[in-house]
Structures are given as structure tokens and as C-alpha cells.
């Protein structure tokens, strides 16, 4: 059973998500919070597996809450929920450790599938939106580009290929097929990327690759 905490200041959104997710046999909504401060408190007490986190909320927004939650030992997975015009906040949240993001008009079935993937350790990346958001981060940011290039210079050629594939939003299975590797080998390469790039999730690897202009 995947335990979920919903954090959103809109009561209707919380109710709709709870109703939708509650109908799944493997999902359980264990709590609902109306702002980031409540979300941080409930995350500590309820210890959910996945948090659906809104960005724009009163008192403490989703960005600050995500950063604080991720700083704790063994944090839950966080999926950011947002509208497209909040992309600056989303990029910052992903860089702070969120495991993925969804637009609020995402079909219910895709939300459910994203939760399952994230709970299983495979962050949910929407390639089209991810590329748009990361391009904004890169715009006019030469120091960031230089830093990313320096970090990527520590990789072997194969690790670099895997990093680029992660930057494209590919899953482990897709990377294995593209590079003619086994899935366990891809997982091993991704694990080494975490260590060499100082990343805690695939999104941060993707941001590094985009910063370096490789995707």
C-alpha cells in the first residue's frame, strides 16, 4: 500500500484527489494539509510514502516545504502539482529534491501512474514541460553552465551517455533499449551518477545535463 499525503490550499482539489486516489487498491490517502506548514508537520507525523505538493499556498509555500521535508532523514517522495505559469517555482522545487511534477490538468490515470512510479523510485518527468522549465533556468546563466560542464567532466563516456538519456526523461528500460544495456547495468550507472554529480534524484541529473547544453 502506497501512503499519500495531499498538500493543497484548495479544499476542492484535496477532496477530488482523495476521492480519486482512494478508489485505487494500492493507494491510501493518509492525510490532507491546507498549506506547506501543515504539510511539513503531517509529513513528520504520518510518514507518507509520497506527497502531492501544491506550490502556491499561504503561510508556507510548496517550494519551502519541499526543501524542508527533503532535508530530513529518509524523506518521502514529493510530486509537485502546479499550473504551467508556476514553472519558475517548479524548477526550484525539483532542484531542491522533488521527485517529479504534474500539471493540475493531468488526466487522473496519469496521476495514479506517476504516484506508483515515484513510489517505486523512478521520478516522474514530463519531457516537454521539463525541457521548457530547464531552458528557463539556463537562460543567461553562464556560471551555471560552466559548473555543470565541470561536474560532467568527471564521468566516463558511458556514464555521460546514460546521463544524457536521463536528461531526455527516459526510464531505465528505455535507456537500456537505446544504449543496448541491461536494466540492472543502467541502474548501476545511474547510481554512480548520483555519487559523481552529487545528485539525490534523476531530476537533478537532468538539470545538470540541460545546464551543460547536452539536451
TrEMBL record:
> What domain of life is recorded for the organism?
Bacteria
Q: Name the UniProt key words of this record, in alphabetical order.
A: DNA-binding, Phosphoprotein, Transcription, Transcription regulation
* Residue ranges constituting the Response regulatory domain according to the UniProt record: 3-119
Keyword DNA-binding tagged: yes
Gene3D superfamilies with a match to the protein in the record? 3.40.50.2300
Pfam families registered for this protein in UniProt: GerE, Response_reg
Q: Report the residues modified as 4-aspartylphosphate.
A: 54
Extract the InterPro entries matched here. CheY-like_superfamily (IPR011006), NreC/VraR/RcsB-like_REC (IPR058245), Sig_transdc_resp-reg_C-effctor (IPR016032), Sig_transdc_resp-reg_receiver (IPR001789), Tscrpt_reg_LuxR_C (IPR000792), WalR-like (IPR039420)
Q: Where is the HTH luxR-type domain?
A: 148-213
Q: Which PANTHER family match?
A: TRANSCRIPTIONAL REGULATORY PROTEIN NARL-RELATED, TWO-COMPONENT RESPONSE REGULATOR
Protein name as it appears in the record: Response regulator transcription factor
Q: Which organism is it from?
A: Nocardioides imazamoxiresistens
Q: Which classification does the entry list for the species?
A: Bacteria, Bacillati, Actinomycetota, Actinomycetes, Propionibacteriales
Amino acid at each position: 500500500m502506497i501512503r499519500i499525503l495531499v498538500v493543497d490550499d484548495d479544499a476542492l482539489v484535496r477532496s477530488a484527489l482523495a476521492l480519486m486516489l482512494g478508489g485505487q487498491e494500492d493507494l491510501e490517502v493518509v492525510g490532507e494539509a491546507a498549506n506547506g506548514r501543515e504539510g511539513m508537520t503531517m509529513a513528520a507525523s504520518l510518514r507518507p510514502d509520497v506527497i502531492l505538493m501544491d506550490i502556491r499556498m499561504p503561510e508556507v509555500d510548496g517550494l519551502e516545504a519541499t526543501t524542508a521535508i527533503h532535508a530530513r532523514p529518509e524523506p518521502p517522495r514529493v510530486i509537485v502539482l502546479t499550473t504551467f505559469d508556476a514553472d519558475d517555482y517548479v524548477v526550484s522545487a525539483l532542484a531542491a529534491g522533488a521527485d517529479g511534477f504534474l500539471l493540475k490538468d493531468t488526466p487522473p490515470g496519469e496521476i495514479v501512474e506517476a504516484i506508483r512510479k515515484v513510489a517505486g523510485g523512478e521520478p516522474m518527468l514530463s519531457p516537454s514541460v521539463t525541457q521548457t522549465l530547464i531552458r528557463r533556468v539556463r537562460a543567461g546563466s553562464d556560471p551555471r553552465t560552466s559548473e555543470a560542464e565541470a561536474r560532467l567532466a568527471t564521468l566516463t563516456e558511458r556514464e555521460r551517455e546514460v546521463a544524457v538519456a536521463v536528461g531526455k526523461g527516459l526510464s531505465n528500460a528505455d535507456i537500456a533499449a537505446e544504449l543496448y544495456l541491461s536494466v540492472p547495468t543502467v541502474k548501476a550507472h545511474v547510481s554512480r551518477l548520483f555519487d559523481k554529480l552529487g545528485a539525490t534524484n534523476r531530476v537533478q541529473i537532468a538539470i545538470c545535463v540541460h545546464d551543460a547544453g547536452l539536451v
